[in-house]
Amino acid sequence: MYGPPRKIVHIDMDAYYASVEQRDDPRLNGKPVIVAWGGTRSVVCAASYEARKFGVRSAMPAAQAERLCPQAIFVPPDFIRYKAVSRQIRAIFSRHTDLIEPLSLDEAYLDVTVNKQGLGSATEVAKAIRASIRNELSLTASAGVAANKFLAKIASDWHKPNGLLVVRPHQAAAFLTSLPVTRLPGVGKVTGKRLAQIGIATVGELRTAPLPVLECRFGQWGRRLHELSLGIDERPVVTQRPALQVSAEDTFESDLRLDELEPHIRRLSEKTWRSYRKQPTRVARTIVLKLKTAQFKTLTRSLTLPTPPATATDVADIACGLRARVDLSPGTLYRLVGVGLAGLIDAGQFTAQADLFAGNELL
To answer: Could you tell me the end-to-end alpha-carbon distance of the chain, in angstroms, rounded to an integer?
Structure first.
């Protein structure tokens, strides 16, 4: 049984980092701007829409971006400034609702089922927010308005940049029907391929698939897929999202072999441990090693322990040991390494789970 529809707005700033740079330096207006650190090892943090026309995208190697758009202007990122502007954007959101779920510096969900300004609809709230961002900050934002989070997020991407799309409850099914299933949250390449194997490529086709078939093939996730195909998403806007993972990573000046990574893994383990210790009420048991090859293939290896690690040295020792589970050739070169602590939960929750399992051993 599902409750009455919420009114959700998803706000997504347009080419955020690049737009801030263009705003603050008028010489960059209308120019292809790429936000990236200098050097051959850099990746693109953001690209203006003028640069995107040439195929430049975030996370692309900067060298490739330069080949695609030789006339691009490269600007080093200034995250202190981007965070300051993000706080100004958040203050505009707060004029309308306290139910704000930030996803990053440049996007957030807002529950405006009841709004502070007494505006007559969620659409009016979205228009007011976009106008305030434009008039006060000289930036543009796109917005999606719907009865739930996943529809609002899809809608905000529909008319970018500087667009607004409203998906009313009675329009949801028709809006979704022709979309590829990969537009649904949680459906990546692997799940998309598995769905394609049973003849499902669009949300409409997913909707007509028998629920028992989906549950047989995907377990509980099959029911979730069925609900999404119907436009159902009951997730609330969560104002405080506790971190599920802390990590640190580094890109090298020159590619390194696996057996040369230990000093870097130990240094990153110390950095990760310092971040972890800032959350004294949270514990983690899973240690993650992340690697990226010179060919930009990313792989991770992880180990879940029966008890949380006690020191940074524990983390480093295990992360170094995870290299043994990398099955690429010894001559493979790596451009990036990262160390993370994953699956963070409240310490009280972990204690309760440990007591439960300890009690089961006596049964």
So the answer is: 38
